[in-house]
Amino acid sequence: MRRPTLQTIADKLGLSKMTVSRALRGEPHVKAEVREQVKQAAQALGYQPDPEIGKLMAHMRRQRGSESPQTLAFVWAERTAAEIKQSAWSMELIRGAHERARHLGFMVSEFYLAEKGMTARRLSGILEARGIAGFILSPLITRSRGHVSMRWEKFSSVVIGLGYARPAQHRVHHHHFLGMMTAMRRLKKLGYRRIGLFASTTLDQRMFGAWSASFRTHHPLAVSQVEELLCLKRQPTRADLLGWIKTARPDVVIDGGQLAFDWLKGMSLPQDLGYVTMSWQPDKPERAGIDQQTDVLGAAAVDLLVEQLHHNERGPPQHPKIVMTEGLWREGTTVRTVR
């Protein structure tokens, strides 16, 4: 039996082959009832996209370059354009997305839910009107488990991070458990024993306790001694940090972000105290820590989104995928060999 093609569906429904192709891609200018009719016919006939054609189309998009690339949306959930420019992490994330999209023959346009007058529903209408079939949603910053009311059923989508409670979506995030394990192993190799972790509970909860769990699992001291070396605060302050250092006496501090470094001014690093950040930044190379390779995270989000577009997949997936990216240890002058 011959494999059904786009032409098979077109002949059955009395439509053009181009209309069928556009309907299966979920293009918004094809009427919703036509898209649904084509979808049902494709399922009934057992139609499956030809992977070789998909590869050819991807190659053609790359060859076309900037002539007429398909647009992907990158939606910033909680930050304005001005705030994004102040965040090295965010700038690396979007740089990786832009570069990967160009390589695959697409382009990325940025949108901001935090801008005045913008809502998720309104933005959904804007994307649909512009013919943008897929979007990437940035991590939640202030809400540890939240929801954004996009019209998910209309689009292919990927969310970054684990901070979204619903709907269940394909998502990408940094492998935080492995990142902490890498930092702990490196510090143990340098001879540190009283390793402390100072971080926000909101951050740790957003990643389902990956940092604290890995910290406890890979700590060189006995379980009974580890808890005092773990300082998690909802809104950490300098007083929290200095008070904890005085009582717990860590010989190195792992900082969940970058705040602790500024609060340690007056101490001699690494002679008095070692310092490591779980969010290493290229503009602060002297601070040892884990480079989350945020540009790789942005690129992975594009890969996962383009995969859905190639397969004409729209709406919340039946079997959501989680793709994790790996960080790298970066040497710095804030730690030393203590043996």
Secondary structure blueprint with pairings:
Elements lengths: L5 H8 L3 H8 L7 H14 L5 H14 L5 E7 L4 H5 L2 H16 L2 E7 L7 H10 L4 E4 L18 E5 L10 E4 L1 H15 L4 E6 H6 L3 H9 L4 H4 L3 E4 L4 H11 L3 E4 L3 H5 L10 E4 L11 E3 L2 H17 L11 E4 L2 E3 L9
Parallel strand pairs: 1-2, 1-3, 3-4, 4-5, 5-11, 6-7, 6-8, 8-9
Antiparallel strand pairs: 10-12
Kindly describe this structure.
The chain is α/β, with parallel strands linked by helices. It has 14 helices and twelve strands. Strand 8, helix 13 (259-263) and strand 9 form a beta-alpha-beta unit. The protein has helices at 6-13, 17-24, 32-45, 51-64, 81-85, 88-103, 120-129, 176-190, 201-206, 210-218, 223-226, 238-248, 259-263, 294-310, and strands spanning 70-76, 106-112, 134-137, 156-160, 171-174, 195-200, 230-233, 252-255, 274-277, 289-291, 322-325, 328-330. The strands form three sheets. A six-stranded parallel beta sheet has the order 2-1-3-4-5-11, with helices on one face. The chain is elongated and about 80 Å long. It folds into three domains: 6-48, 434 Repressor (Amino-terminal Domain) (Orthogonal Bundle), CATH 1.10.260; 69-174 and 295-325, Rossmann fold (3-Layer(aba) Sandwich); 176-292, Rossmann fold.
